[in-house]
Specification:
Elements lengths: L5 E10 L2 E2 L1 H10 L5 E2 L10 E2 L7 H5 L9 H14 L7 E7 L4 H13 L18 H10 L5 E5 L4 H14 L5 E8 L3 H9 L8 E9 L5 E10 L4 H16 L8 E4 L4 H11 L20 H11 L6 E9 L3 E9 L4
Parallel strand pairs: 5-6, 5-7, 10-11
Antiparallel strand pairs: 1-2, 1-8, 1-9, 3-4, 7-8, 9-12, 11-12
C-alpha cells in the first residue's frame, strides 16, 4: 500500500446479525432478515424492528455496565473494546459518529424538567448519558484511550464523517491510530419520532474501524467527501461522487463496486447512472438491518470489506440524507475480512 494514505487495519461490529464482525459478515453475505416482532416491554407504534439479538449489556461489553447506561453507549463500548486492546492507548484517538447521542436519554431529561415540580428536579443518573459525547468519553475512560476524543453529529453519513476526521488527526500528527465509527440505538422515543416522520423499519447497532497510516491493512481510504444538501439531493450526490473520483484521480470505469449506503432511491439512481447498474450488486446491501440511522454508512463500509472480490478493487460508498447532507468514501480494498 502507498505511504501517507489512511488505512483501515481492523474493524468490529455489533448489529442485528449479532456481536462481532464474523456475525456481521455471515449475516450480510447471506442476506438473512433480522426484523422481528417486538415484545410487550416496548410501548411503540412499530410492529417490529431489527434489534441486536439477546441484548445483554454485560455480555456485550464483557464486564460490568451501569444500570443507567443507554444502548448506544453499550454498542460503542462493545465495538471499541474489540479494537482497543490491539494497540497502545496513549496515542490512540477516538471519533464517534452519531445522530444526536441517545435520543431516549435526552428526551427523558427534557420530559422530567417539564413534569417535575421544578425544572432542575430530574433523574441525575440519566443526566450524563444525555450529553452527546457521553459514549465516546466512556470508551476512552474504560479502555485508557488518551488521544483526541471527538463526537460528530451527522445522521446516516456520520460514520464517513468520523473516518474523514480520523484522516485529519493522523495527517496532523495528533494520533498514531484512530478508532472511528458510528452507533445508533433503538428506543421508544426514536420509534415514535420515526413514526411521525413516516419512516420505515428501524434498526440499531454500531461499527468501528481502526485507522492508521503507512501500514498494510484491509483497505486504503483514498478519498472522503461531503457537502450540504441545499434543495437537490441527487445533484449533491453526483457532485460528491465526482469529487471522490477527482481526488483519487480515477475514472468511473475503474470503480469495481458502487454502494448506495442506505439504499434510497436517490442513491441508487445516481450510482447506477454514474457507474452502471451491474456494479451495485457486488457488495451486499445492508437493508436487512433496517434503518440504522447514524450507523448506516458505516455498516455499508463494513459490508464492502466483507464482499469477496479481486485484491486492490475500488469501492465507492455514497450516502444521502435529504434532511441536510451527503457524504461518500472511496476505498481500495485489498481482501475480504
Amino acid at each position: 500500500m502507498s505511504t501517507g494514505v489512511p488505512v483501515i487495519t481492523a474493524w468490529s461490529a455489533v448489529s442485528p446479525f449479532g456481536a462481532g464482525k464474523e456475525a456481521f459478515a455471515d449475516g450480510v453475505r447471506s442476506g438473512r432478515q433480522t426484523s422481528a416482532p417486538l415484545g410487550d416491554e416496548w410501548a411503540v407504534p412499530d410492529p417490529g424492528a431489527c434489534l441486536v439479538p439477546d441484548y445483554d449489556p454485560q455480555e456485550l461489553v464483557g464486564g460490568k455496565v451501569g444500570r443507567s447506561t443507554d444502548r448506544a453507549t453499550v454498542f460503542a463500548l462493545a465495538t471499541v473494546g474489540r479494537l482497543a486492546g490491539t494497540g497502545p492507548g496513549d496515542r490512540t484517538g477516538l471519533v464517534l459518529g452519531t445522530t444526536a447521542g441517545s435520543l431516549r436519554s435526552t428526551m427523558t431529561i427534557t420530559r422530567d424538567s417539564f413534569l417535575s415540580r421544578r425544572p432542575h428536579q430530574v433523574d441525575t443518573k440519566v443526566l450524563p448519558a444525555a450529553v452527546m459525547n457521553y459514549a465516546a468519553g466512556q470508551c476512552a475512560i474504560r479502555y485508557g484511550l488518551t488521544g483526541p476524543n471527538t463526537t460528530l453529529a451527522g445522521g446516516p453519513g456520520a460514520g464517513l464523517f468520523a473516518l474523514a476526521y480520523a484522516h485529519r488527526l493522523l495527517g496532523a500528527g495528533r494520533a498514531d491510530r484512530v478508532l472511528a465509527g458510528a452507533v445508533e440505538e433503538y428506543s421508544a422515543e426514536r420509534a415514535w419520532a420515526n413514526h411521525h416522520n413516516g419512516g420505515g423499519v428501524l434498526g440499531e447497532g454500531g461499527v468501528f474501524f481502526a485507522v492508521e497510516s503507512d501500514v498494510d491493512g484491509l483497505a486504503e481510504v483514498l478519498a472522503v467527501h461531503s457537502r450540504v444538501v441545499l434543495d437537490d439531493e441527487p445533484e449533491a450526490l453526483r457532485a460528491t461522487a465526482s469529487a471522490l473520483l477527482a481526488r483519487a484521480e480515477v475514472t468511473p470505469e475503474q470503480i469495481w463496486a458502487a454502494v448506495p449506503a442506505t439504499g434510497s432511491g436517490a442513491e441508487r439512481a445516481v450510482t447506477a447512472a454514474m457507474f452502471g447498474e451491474h456494479k451495485l450488486g457486488r457488495v451486499p446491501g445492508t437493508g436487512a438491518l433496517g434503518d440504522t440511522g447514524a450507523a448506516g454508512a458505516a455498516f455499508a463500509v463494513a459490508s464492502a470489506l466483507c464482499a469477496p472480490g479481486p485484491a486492490g478493487r475500488l469501492v465507492l460508498v455514497l450516502s444521502g440524507d435529504p434532511a441536510g447532507s451527503v457524504a461518500g468514501i472511496l476505498l481500495r480494498v485489498e481482501g475480504s475480512s
